[in-house]
Write a structure and sequence with these properties.
336 residues; TIM Barrel; two-stranded antiparallel ribbon; globular
């Protein structure tokens, strides 16, 4: 039986990253609305199937796919399970297990992620359905008052309990504490909030006896708020991000897969590339993108059968660009 440490290493294999295809029903509807496609179960299955059947992308650039509960149970029109299509390409199926960020009582504008109730049983079921790893996202916002210590504490605690339950089930936990880009804060404020969050998360993981060699960290990059008119350069973002992680992330963690968090496709690739140009980092530094891997593909597809190949090509291109960035060898010329 493959152990969690081996699976965690596979998830951050050289030049490979993770496709986040775990949009909730509400989120995928918003995406489909942008191309005027009805968010029916059939359409959702078809769109994701096109991505999973993109052989070049899946075999060469994607190590794993995070799925939504509906998707892990779906089959294509020929009766082949989507999970099996993913496995056939040599990629690992994973599953989003949290129930979303809900308002944190008495704390205005802050949230706590729910979903611990019944999680042990759900993980067992997902394991039987083929999941090799799971994902839980905690959301930390920045404002004049936030993040509060309470928000960081309750989310770190939930992440640690989730991670321990995953490892008990033989599933690798992706630990995702996301400090949001929303706001007008500068990069230093993001650095401070990210550092405080990560230190607390790793404290709690240790307290809950989580094996750090059998996890994957999915954090934000250290970056300016989206409403800040002064933007740091990709080089500054890379240096601040790596510097922050060296202060917070233990070396035994096999890999860090960044979320794109609202960056454009090319921004997310360029920033990842700069991060990987920095030498002497102890972890594999790769990607786990949703929109930054899918935006062009979705636009190319438009819900039409005749556009499936275009959709697949667009997805393969972005996966390849991010694979290059995960090795620090991307350049803007590659985008042409």
């Amino acid at each position: 039986m493959t152990n969690i440490n081996e699976i965690a290493k596979q998830m951050v294999a050289e030049g490979k990253g993770i496709l986040a295809a775990d949009e909730s029903s509400g989120t995928i509807k918003k995406r489909f609305d942008t191309i005027n496609v009805n968010s029916s179960e059939e359409n959702r299955m078809n769109y994701r199937r096109i991505l999973f059947e993109s052989t070049e992308a899946m075999q060469n650039y994607i190590s794993g796919v995070i799925l939504f509960d509906e998707t892990i149970r779906q089959s294509n029109n020929d009766g082949e399970r989507l999970v099996d299509i993913i496995k056939k390409s040599g990629s690992l199926p994973g599953i989003k297990v949290d129930m979303g960020a809900k308002e944190l009582a008495t704390m205005q504008g802050e949230t706590v992620t729910e979903g611990l109730d019944g999680l042990r049983e759900r993980l067992q079921e997902y394991s039987n359905l083929g999941a090799k790893f799971a994902k839980w996202r905690a959301v930390i916002s920045i404002s004049n008052k936030n993040p509060s210590s309470l928000c960081i504490d309750v989310n770190a605690h939930a992440l640690a309990r989730y991670a321990a339950l995953c490892q008990e089930s033989g599933i690798v936990p992706i630990v995702e504490p996301e400090v949001l880009m929303d706001g007008s804060h500068d990069i230093q404020k993001c650095y401070d909030a990210t550092k405080e969050t990560l230190l607390k998360v790793f404290d709690d993981l240790s307290f809950h006896n989580v094996d750090l060699k059998g996890i994957c960290l999915k954090p934000n990059m250290v970056i300016d708020g989206s409403e800040n008119s002064e933007k740091s350069s990709p080089k500054e973002i890379a240096e601040m991000t790596v510097s922050c992680f060296k202060e917070c992330v233990p070396e035994e963690v096999p890999g860090i897969v960044f979320l794109s968090g609202g960056q454009s496709e090319v921004e997310a690739t360029q920033n990842l590339n700069e991060i990987n140009k920095i030498e002497n980092t102890p972890w594999k530094l790769s990607f786990s993108y949703g929109r930054a891997l899918q935006s062009s593909a979705l636009q190319a597809w438009q819900g039409k059968l005749e556009n499936e190949e275009l959709c697949s090509k667009a997805f393969t291109h972005r996966a390849k660009m991010n694979s290059l960035a995960a090795k620090g060898s991307w350049s803007s010329q590659e985008e042409v």
